[in-house]
Design goal:
Elements: E1 2-4, H1 8-22, E2 47-50, H2 60-63, E3 84-86, H3 111-118, E4 122-125, H4 132-145, E5 148-151, H5 161-169, E6 173-175, H6 185-198, E7 202-212, H7 215-219, H8 223-238, E8 247-254, E9 261-272, E10 276-287, H9 288-308, E11 313-314, H10 316-322, H11 332-339
Parallel strand pairs: 1-2, 1-4, 2-3, 4-5, 5-6, 6-11, 7-8
Antiparallel strand pairs: 7-9, 9-10
Bound molecules: nicotinamide-adenine-dinucleotide.
């Protein structure tokens, strides 16, 4: 796989692959240890792009620990012989993080050429929230190089009809948008609300707000970028309740010393039997990078399995499983049926591509 953006999520992903390679307790912490025969051992990194002078030109195994990355160390990978290539910054730098990112003076590389030369199967986009132009640049490079594309960012790529058509025409898989962490505020909030609705309760109001210390939380101070993230998160949570009600979900502040940790506060108020009131007031604390990597480690193997089976275009089940803004929202039972192929069932549910 190739990585666009060597920040905290990319760092956790690279370190996580090393961790599962070397640990004897090989599957603890993994949602799906094997996907169509692929284990974490089968993942290898073949290309990476960034714009920061502390990362560009360095081996990926070192670049993942360069500032401003501040995610905790899981494992130190051996030298990967993958040099981080320079890309065009475009909108990858927010005014709120401009002091943290030191844009390299190196000449931007030809992205599609680097991808072709590295023989990458999949490009994972991990550029910052709000980097819509940069995300489109990578989607374009993926199509030109014959790579599947996983959009971990909130930029609308998998949810955009024209990108769907381009990937379908090129017989390449497209997955996204915006990772829904393995364990995180969105997935927990959605499940809590689903549980309450399923038990007949009526939800009157809810919010989920969080504070963190990664660059992504600092970007939340940028009103425009913060609105992008908040609207995707709110829509992802609201989708599990079959009526409209007051709801807010999203990042709210940046606390430098928290590093890559995030604390999320949940509030739910509603009524159950005979109009009796209940409230839920809850807190979740975790680290962002591993939560994102824990999901991507599944998505990347699902995309590879789809490629092996010549399944392409927008992968609806993979997107609904792991992303906040998938091209189509699926009910939990449809999702479980559609995912069964990746778990080993013989039935192929993802649609086969039309011939280009
Ligand atoms: N748990 C999570 O952390 C989580 C969950 C859901 C979605 N995401 C999404 O994942 C993305 C990455 O998050 P992160 O915490 O790793 O961010 P980060 O800020 O730590 O890393 C982003 C990296 O992208 C680089 N970059 C900026 N412009 C670039 C360009 N044009 N080309 C290549 N690289 C560029 C930066 O230098 C930095 O290294 C964000 O869009 C975020 O919304 C993260």
């Amino acid at each position: 796989m190739a990585l666009a953006g060597v920040g905290n999520c990319a760092s956790s992903l690279v370190q996580g692959v090393e961790y599962y390679r070397s640990k004897s307790a090989k599957t603890i912490g993994l949602s799906l240890p094997r996907i169509k025969g692929y284990s974490v051992d089968d993942i290898s990194f073949v290309a990476a792009f960034d714009i920061d002078s502390r990362k560009v030109g360095r081996d990926l195994s070192e670049a993942i620990s360069a500032e401003p990355n501040n995610v905790r160390t899981i494992a130190q990978p051996r030298k990967l012989n993958v040099r981080v290539s320079m890309a065009q910054p475009l909108d990858g730098v927010s005014p709120f993080t401009a002091e943290k990112i030191q844009v390299s003076a190196a000449k931007p590389s030809n992205l599609a050429q680097v991808l072709r030369d590295s023989r990458a199967d999949i490009l994972v986009n991990l550029t910052p929230t709000g980097s819509t132009k940069a995300s489109e640049m990578y989607a374009d490079a993926a199509v030109n190089a014959g790579c599947a594309f996983i959009n971990a960012t909130p930029a609308k790529i998998a949810g955009n009809g024209s990108w769907q058509a381009r990937f379908r025409k090129a017989a390449l898989a497209l997955v996204g948008d915006d990772v829904m962490d393995q364990i995180g505020s969105t997935v927990l909030h959605r499940n809590l609300l689903s549980f309450l609705v399923g038990r007949g309760a009526h939800v009157d109001e809810t919010y989920q707000l969080d504070i963190g210390g990664g660059t992504e939380s600092e970007i939340a101070l940028d009103k425009r970028r913060y609105e992008i993230k908040r609207s995707v998160k709110t829509a992802a949570v609201a989708a599990v309740v079959p009526y409209k009600f007051p709801i807010v979900a999203g990042s709210s502040d940046f606390v430098d010393f928290m590093e890559n940790r995030r604390t999320s506060y949940f509030w739910i108020k509603g009524v159950y039997f005979a109009g009796t009131e209940f409230t839920i007031d809850m807190r979740l604390s975790l680290e962002d990078g591993p939560a994102c990597a824990g999901l991507l480690i599944d998505a990347v193997r699902m995309v590879k399995a789809a490629k092996d089976a010549s399944i392409a275009g927008p992968l609806l089940a993979v997107s609904a499983y792991g992303f906040k803004a998938p091209p189509r929202k699926l009910s939990e039972s449809d999702l479980q049926t559609d995912l069964s192929w990746y778990r080993g069932s013989k039935r192929v549910v993802e649609k086969l591509p039309k011939k280009p």
